[in-house]
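Lecture 7 notes: from sequence to structure.
We start with the chain below.
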Amino acid sequence: MPRTSRTVGLRAAATLAITGSLLMTGIGGTALAQADPLRSAGFGSLDFGSLGLGSSQQAPDAPRLEGIDNFRDVAGTGDGYEGSGYTGSLGQHLNKGVFYRANAFTPKGADMAELVKLDLAKVYDLRTDGEIAKVPDVLPPGVDSEHISILAHDVDITAMMATIRTPDEMRGAMQEMNRIFVTGAVERAGLKTLLTNMAKTDGPQVFHCTSGKDRTGWTAMLLLSIAGVDQSTIMDDYLLTNEYSVKSIAAATAYITATYGAGAAAIAAPALGVEASFLQAGLDQVKADYGTIDNYLTEGLGLSQGTIMELKAKLLG
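Predicted structure tokens for the same chain:
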């Protein structure tokens, strides 16, 4: 079969399904020993030799959660990230406690009590039906949930993962995943629905995928871009997954190494965390197809200026 963009993207989706589950072994989520997905995927057979000036009273920093280790505030910590006002020159700190990002909701220990304190209004689950079936969300009582799959569909993990045989191929699949957020019609439609609903919904909101780094990372980048956060800060925020998920990444690496060998761990390594080249690949695709993020939001996603302004007002107002 020709190695088309969509083929590589499907391989990336398969990678997310596997590595997301593996990451969750490190925080008490899915029991991978029972599913044994890497072996079924072919690893076992491989030879591995703003409106206003911003709020004067910021919400407290997001809690660090044991079972949802990549849970964090889109606005950052402390005073929050600095965005820009409608003039493009007035620095404003983003409002905390408005939008949170996360990996799959598998609370553990005191996590649920911390989540209840946040008084969440809505949680958006960006995963596919297959991912949700394997690891359903466990939400605080009374919190509304909406499923908006960002990827086109579930994939044949066995077929796709068996074709990824080197770390560079895995890295390329993750880069293509970010390009598909720009080129894929289904992905763009899902992002439009997500951002539109976030603009229209009152109260603190959370969006998440399985690992909280790819679909979630792209969405966070869009929100920070809308708020006028500088590109360097946006990239630093994207890379924070490697810090927040360090324990689950280490646990997943140890599991793969012990079960399938160091070669398998090396192949999986790029997808367990994030690299700047992943997000940059998507940003480069935006530039190639639309010129700017603003054009991507309006022409690519079809967002109205009103929706963009509502999001910016939530982030900065």
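Points to note: The first strand starts at residue 72 and ends at 73. The CA atoms of residues 95 and 315 lie 5 Å apart.
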